[in-house]
Design brief:
Blueprint lengths: L9 H4 L5 H10 L9 E4 L4 E3 L13 E4 L2 H6 L3 E2 L19 H10 L2 H4 L2 H7 L4 H12 L3 H19 L4 H7 L5 H12 L3 H8 L8 E6 L6 H9 L7 E3 L4 E7 L2 E9 L6 E7 L6 H11 L6 H8 L6 H6 L11 H10 L5 H15 L1 E2 L10 E2 L3 H4 L11 H16 L10 H9 L6 H10 L12 H6 L9 H8 L6 H19 L2
């Protein structure tokens, strides 16, 4: 019988909100806590999200878990009503901590092909130390977390799509249908086909559509406006309501569209066209990162509101998110081209690069989408100067493309911010501003902060006195580990002030 004093719950307490907070969030169905903990009900054997619409159980029948994998390890099954597979990931998934970097690798499917000791080596820990860290913080070992993620994704596909069970198994990263059926049945005590018969929604003809939940508040108009101002003709489209782009490679091209969920619930609607089952999990992970769906606004605000300059900005835009790029190389080209020029000018030049060197489709898959952004191989030796790029920038783009191809730089999310910046600034033409901007927009790193940015140096000062890069970096120390969000709020405020100043 769990309660705040129960010693059996102590090993989960460090990763959970206080008992009273969990109780209040559960009873009020507070969506701000969705994914930050799970409620397991002893009498029914199921675990739920805090937003579950079912009548709340008695406190004596409740156990709280920091991760779905911990609840499943304890023998609980996911609720068929609130569907824990829809929860956003917890805040511990982001940043430089070893746990966050290991979880980022697991989300990319690292343990599908590699053993646990390889994961531990990538985050510079021993295997036993990594396992102990997961159990202490999440209540489940890494392999259990990996399996739970795959099974919950499979459950979402079985419920929301018409994919065959074989394709669902492939999409969830299982090597065979037999292994998938065994894992699903042993964990949920229900065969995949039976779940589909009893729980699947009616799937209309059309694209594969998935619900991607987030914790509110979420400033969708601001994020969409950011993407719209940088959209590349033919590659992507950002209109008043949605964002769409081509994805894949020349041999297998698909496209996606992202828009708000129609009923106004805290979720985005992801529509996928011509995307192979094996690419679904990676595609969903990329979209979640691109639209910053796993952010915890409460945690971010709790830190940034203590900074006087940021407090009114947070009040005006409490749901601001980091708009990441779809592809790291594409984002790097944009960042290099955009050094010391306006957003509009950079978009024009990058659009020319895409038009000249991108892969053109013989027939557009959707109106306005007819080309893929060029690959590193295509730009490594390309002549870019005649497209309006000065020679120094053109040389930097080519060097960067070659460095990606030979592994001198990468977009690995298991690197710490300092490691990432050090590797990128070792390239000629890449300074701290570009490296931090890349960490922010290519990786979605929450603590990246381009202190050399001239706009930030003025915006951080209440009287717009320009700070030095060193002084700005010192000012931003109080914003850790959310300096990236501080930068976004300052950029947004500077843009708003410029618009107000226009006659």
């Amino acid at each position: 019988m769990p309660n705040p004093q129960n010693p059996q719950q102590a090993r989960h307490d460090s990763a959970l909100p206080p008992w009273a907070v969990c109780e209040q969030a559960r009873l009020s169905r507070d969506s701000r806590f969705d994914g930050l903990f799970f409620t397991a009900v002893i009498t029914t054997g199921v675990y739920c999200r805090p937003v579950c619409p079912a009548p709340p159980p008695k406190p004596d029948n409740v156990r709280y878990f920091a991760h779905a994998a911990a609840a499943e390890s304890a023998g609980f099954r996911p609720c068929l009503r609130c569907r824990p597979e829809l929860s956003p990931a917890g805040a511990w998934r982001r940043g430089d901590a070893a746990l966050a970097r290991a979880l980022a690798l697991i989300s990319e499917g690292f343990l599908t092909e590699q053993p646990l000791n390889a994961l531990a080596e990538r985050v510079h820990l021993g295997e036993r130390q990594l396992r102990r860290l997961f159990v202490e913080r999440l209540g489940a070992p890494p392999l259990r977390v990996h399996t739970t993620r795959r099974l919950l994704f499979a459950k979402q596909l079985l419920t929301e799509t018409a994919l065959s069970v074989t394709d669902v198994a492939l999409a969830a990263g299982f090597g065979s249908l037999r292994r998938f059926n065994t894992a699903f049945s042993e964990t949920y005590r229900l065969a995949p086909t039976l779940l589909r018969k009893t729980e699947a929604t009616t799937v209309a003809d059309g694209p594969l559509t998935l619900r991607l939940a987030y914790r509110p508040p979420y400033d969708w108009p601001a994020l969409l406006d950011f993407l719209r101002g940088r959209a590349l003709p033919g590659v992507e489209i950002a209109d008043e309501h949605s964002y769409a782009r081509l994805i894949g490679h020349a041999d297998k091209i698909g496209w996606l569209r992202v828009s708000p969920w129609p009923d106004g619930s805290p979720a985005l609607k992801l529509e996928l066209h011509e995307v192979a089952p094996a690419a679904l999990l990676d595609t969903v992970s990329r979209v979640r990162r691109m639209f910053d769906l796993d952010a915890d606004p409460n945690a971010i605000a709790g830190t940034l509101e203590a900074v006087p300059r940021l407090r009114p900005l947070l009040a005006r835009a409490p749901g601001l998110r980091i708009p990441s790029g779809w592809d790291g190389f594409e984002t790097a080209v944009r960042a290099i081209v955009g050094q010391q020029i306006s957003v509009a000018a950079a978009r024009t030049v990058v659009a020319r690069i895409a038009q000249r060197y991108g892969s053109v489709l013989p027939n557009a898959l959707a109106p306005g989408l007819n080309r893929l952004f060029p690959t590193p191989e295509r730009l490594a030796e390309a002549d870019l100067t005649f497209l309006g790029l000065i020679r120094a920038r053109a040389d930097t783009v080519r060097r960067m493309a070659r460095a990606l191809l030979d592994g001198r730089v990468d977009f690995r999310r298991d690197r710490t911010l300092d490691e990432f910046v050090a590797r990128w600034t070792a390239l000629p033409g890449i300074g701290p501003w570009t490296a931090h901007y890349l960490a922010l927009r290519a990786l979605g790193h929450p603590d990246a902060f381009p202190a050399h940015d001239l706009v930030l140096q003025r915006a951080a000062s209440a009287d717009e006195t320009r700070l030095t890069a060193r002084a700005l970096a010192a000012w931003a120390e109080s914003c850790r580990p959310w300096r990236g969000y501080a930068a976004l709020h300052l950029w947004r405020d500077a843009t708003s002030n410029r618009m107000k100043a226009k006659p």
